[in-house]
Amino acid sequence: SLAIAMALPADGQLIACDRDPKVLEVAARYWKKAGVDDKVDCRCGPGLETLDGLLQEGGAGEYDFAYVDADKRGYEAYYERCLELVRPGGLIALDNVLWKGKVADHQVEDKTTSALRQLNEMLIKDDRATVSILPVGDGLAFAAGDRQTIDIIHNETKEDVIHYDAKEDNGIGLNIVRRPK
User: Coil, strand or helix: which one is 53?
Assistant: First the structure.
């Protein structure tokens, strides 16, 4: 969430959600230290409740980007909500979709692996979005709604560089970005 907030324009907004208040407290210290705490709307609670709340607030189609690294068994529901919230051509990123390679091993049948396997199969068949699964780290799925071509990275000045150190990862489970009004 810190890297996302740092990349936002001055009037951009990040909604960061996690169910663990301790995780959010740590993240808030880093947001403040980096001078981006005014861009972050921090919400403590279950991710689906937060996404449903955003939809009830009229947020459908108002967001540019969603990053999900939350309860793996809930990914399919997160994806469906994010499809409603993210504008056409926006981007949804789902982390850990390869689950240490377990999704390819059909002898592994635990609930989390099975849920991620089912998610991946659904993503590939979903005609509402263009989907790519990158086999980096633990697997990262990108879905661009309405099958429109998008620029994932756009930086006119080439001067803004964000350094991300995984050892400092704040662990926020759900991040969604609203475009400036």
Answer: helix
Chain mean position to CA 60: 16
Could you tell me the pLDDT band of residue 181, with boundaries at 50, 70 and 90?
low
> What distance in Å separates the CA atoms of residue 88 and residue 60, rounded to the nearest whole number?
10
- pLDDT tens per residue across span 18-35: 999 999 999 999 999 999
Structure tokens at 51: 């996404």
Sheet containing 86-95, strands listed edge to edge, beginning at the edge strand earlier in sequence: 40-44, 13-18, 174-178, 63-68, 86-95, 140-145, 129-134
**Token pair of 88, please?**
């056409």
Q: Contacts from 22-28 at CB under 8 Å and sequence distance 24+?
A: 23/170, 23/171, 23/172, 23/173, 24/172, 26/170, 26/171, 27/1, 27/2, 27/170, 27/171, 27/172
3-state secondary structure of 13: strand
Distance CA 113, CA 133 (A): 16
**Residue 26, amino acid:** V
- pTM of the predicted model as reported, rounded to 2 decimal places: 0.82
Tell me whether residue 87 is exposed, middle or buried, using C-beta atoms within 10 angstroms of its C-beta: 0 to 12, 13 to 18, 19 or more: middle
Q: What pLDDT, in 10s, does the model give residues 100-145?
A: 999 999 999 999 999 999 999 999 999 999 999 999 889 999 999 7
